[in-house]
């Protein structure tokens, strides 16, 4: 007897609302033999009485698809959030470059609105979005890869014991690579935002920058960018992983696996915002240097430190950056985790991956 629904077609013909975690129907019909069971399943499907078990995961953990999904989630979260805070970033960069003209957050917005209008508040949005989208894809995707890789190298016991070191090493490795893609766009962004009349945006700003300083000039701020981004990302991931674990342990009365997805995403945002405050403080001196070097043609590291001063390196534009980075980091984690939920992956946080491996090894 012909099989009315072959195995290759069965899932494609069953709508998702028929999925269930129960496998009793499949087990009972399969025991009758392939021809009979297929016929029964086909007939039952037509009468809408069968419930086909849903796959437990849409994406296999730690597969190539998993890392690709994390990369896409990172691209969306980082690119969109940096695009959204472009006005804040614009004021912050100008406060760092010209504190006499841009004395405070409020007056800085006032000056920009008066001179450039509403549209001027989003000046440099294109290199911001392009640079941080690519950087975010590398940062999040590679972080998940290196976190798993270093955990495997250390072994289950040491990976669980020194999990914070795993977070730090994984995030640092990911950011060093991701910044290579970010650096050219960051150079163009700062020049567009802080030098009136230089360019309208990415399409005319990039060739103009290369013509002025050469292709290698796009990487003039590479070392300060690493100095800003690597500590920032190490703090971002390690503190987030620690804070969210503490949140589920002390602040959320329900175990994570019993929490609704909206509640888990809320915990991700809160943990990310707190982590962002630490990130801003740690990376701020290097952020001042990046802004100064990318704005001033031919400027050196020593000249930047001398003009900004030690105190200025740590404090100039810091309050605004705390607000910006806190919002950015919280938003990135909630968008990243929302995308993971969308593709069938668990939200970030909870027990370290190696901790589960220890239980398996001991059993």
Automatic annotation (TrEMBL):
<keyword id="KW-0812">Transmembrane</keyword>
<dbReference type="InterPro" id="IPR018108">
    <property type="entry name" value="MCP_transmembrane"/>
</dbReference>
<dbReference type="GO" id="GO:0003729">
    <property type="term" value="F:mRNA binding"/>
</dbReference>
<keyword id="KW-0472">Membrane</keyword>
<keyword id="KW-0813">Transport</keyword>
<keyword id="KW-1133">Transmembrane helix</keyword>
<dbReference type="InterPro" id="IPR044677">
    <property type="entry name" value="SLC25A3/Pic2/Mir1-like"/>
</dbReference>
<dbReference type="GO" id="GO:0005315">
    <property type="term" value="F:phosphate transmembrane transporter activity"/>
</dbReference>
<dbReference type="GO" id="GO:0006970">
    <property type="term" value="P:response to osmotic stress"/>
</dbReference>
<dbReference type="Pfam" id="PF00153">
    <property type="entry name" value="Mito_carr"/>
</dbReference>
<comment type="function">
    <text>Transport of phosphate groups from the cytosol to the mitochondrial matrix. Mediates salt stress tolerance through an ATP-dependent pathway and via modulation of the gibberellin metabolism.</text>
</comment>
<feature type="repeat" description="Solcar">
    <location>
        <begin position="162"/>
        <end position="246"/>
    </location>
</feature>
<keyword id="KW-0496">Mitochondrion</keyword>
<feature type="repeat" description="Solcar">
    <location>
        <begin position="65"/>
        <end position="149"/>
    </location>
</feature>
<dbReference type="InterPro" id="IPR023395">
    <property type="entry name" value="MCP_dom_sf"/>
</dbReference>
<keyword id="KW-0999">Mitochondrion inner membrane</keyword>
<dbReference type="GO" id="GO:0005743">
    <property type="term" value="C:mitochondrial inner membrane"/>
</dbReference>
<dbReference type="GO" id="GO:1990547">
    <property type="term" value="P:mitochondrial phosphate ion transmembrane transport"/>
</dbReference>
<protein>
    <submittedName>
        <fullName>Phosphate transporter</fullName>
    </submittedName>
</protein>
<keyword id="KW-0677">Repeat</keyword>
<keyword id="KW-0809">Transit peptide</keyword>
<comment type="similarity">
    <text>Belongs to the mitochondrial carrier (TC 2.A.29) family.</text>
</comment>
């Amino acid at each position: 007897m012909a099989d009315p629904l072959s195995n290759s077609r069965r899932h494609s013909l069953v709508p998702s609302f028929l999925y269930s975690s129960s496998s009793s129907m499949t087990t009972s019909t399969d025991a009758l033999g392939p021809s009979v069971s297929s016929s029964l399943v086909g007939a039952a499907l037509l009468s809408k009485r069968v419930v086909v078990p849903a796959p437990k995961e849409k994406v296999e953990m730690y597969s190539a698809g998993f890392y690709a999904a994390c990369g896409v989630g990172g691209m969306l979260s980082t690119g969109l959030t940096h695009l959204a805070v472009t006005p804040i970033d614009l004021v912050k960069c100008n406060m760092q470059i010209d504190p006499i003209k841009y004395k405070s957050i409020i007056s800085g917005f006032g000056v920009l609105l008066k001179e450039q209008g509403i549209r001027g508040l989003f000046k440099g949005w294109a290199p911001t979005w392009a640079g941080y989208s690519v950087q975010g894809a590398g940062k999040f995707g590679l972080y998940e890869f290196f976190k798993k890789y270093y955990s495997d190298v250390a072994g289950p016991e040491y990976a669980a014991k020194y999990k914070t070191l795993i977070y730090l090493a994984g995030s640092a490795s990911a950011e060093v690579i991701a910044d290579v893609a970010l650096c050219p766009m960051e150079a163009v962004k700062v020049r567009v935002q802080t030098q009136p009349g230089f360019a309208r945006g990415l399409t005319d700003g990039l060739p103009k920058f290369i013509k002025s300083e050469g292709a290698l000039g796009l990487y003039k701020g590479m070392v300060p960018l690493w100095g800003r981004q690597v500590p920032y990302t190490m703090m971002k991931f390690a503190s987030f992983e620690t804070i969210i674990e503490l949140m589920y342990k002390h602040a959320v009365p329900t175990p994570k696996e019993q929490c609704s997805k909206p509640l888990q995403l809320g915990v991700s945002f809160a943990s990310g915002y707190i982590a962002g405050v630490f990130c801003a403080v740690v990376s701020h001196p290097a952020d001042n240097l990046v802004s100064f070097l990318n704005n001033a043609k031919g400027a050196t590291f020593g000249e930047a430190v001398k003009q900004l001063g030690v105190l200025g390196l740590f404090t100039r534009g810091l309050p605004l950056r705390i607000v910006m980075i806190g919002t950015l980091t919280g938003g990135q984690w909630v968008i990243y985790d929302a995308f993971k939920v969308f593709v069938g992956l668990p939200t970030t946080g909870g027990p370290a991956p190696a901790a589960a491996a220890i239980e398996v090894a001991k059993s």
